[in-house]
Design a protein that fits this description.
alpha/beta, 4 helices, 5 strands
């Protein structure tokens, strides 16, 4: 079961469709607050998380999940591509960090 937290509708829907076609159950959220609510209330194998989100940014969402000892794997999927951004995301508890654009 996958949770996608991405504010760009087209990308979020495209990733969700691709994952569903490969047999995954997918939930989605368009902002950080909704993403946090879903992540706290559901049982997900992985969260695919954008960093630049409205209402609550992705790093804050990630930090809150890790503070609550949530062990769900988190894949950061973002346009932020500096080494510093990657280190910060991984240090806050992301399991992996993938830069946009990417090949599905």
């Amino acid at each position: 079961r996958v949770l996608i937290v991405e504010d760009y509708d087209l990308l979020r829907d495209s990733i969700a469709q691709g994952l569903r076609e490969h047999g995954f159950a997918v939930d989605t959220a368009a902002d950080g607050e909704d993403g946090l609510w879903h992540a706290q209330g559901g049982s997900f194998d992985v969260v695919i998380l954008d960093l630049m989100l409205p209402k609550l940014d992705g790093l804050s969402l990630l930090q809150r999940l890790r503070q609550q000892d949530t062990r769900t794997s988190v894949l950061v999927l973002t346009a932020r591509d500096t080494t510093e951004d990657k280190i910060k995301g991984l240090n806050l508890g992301a399991d992996d960090y993938l830069v946009k654009p990417f090949k599905f």
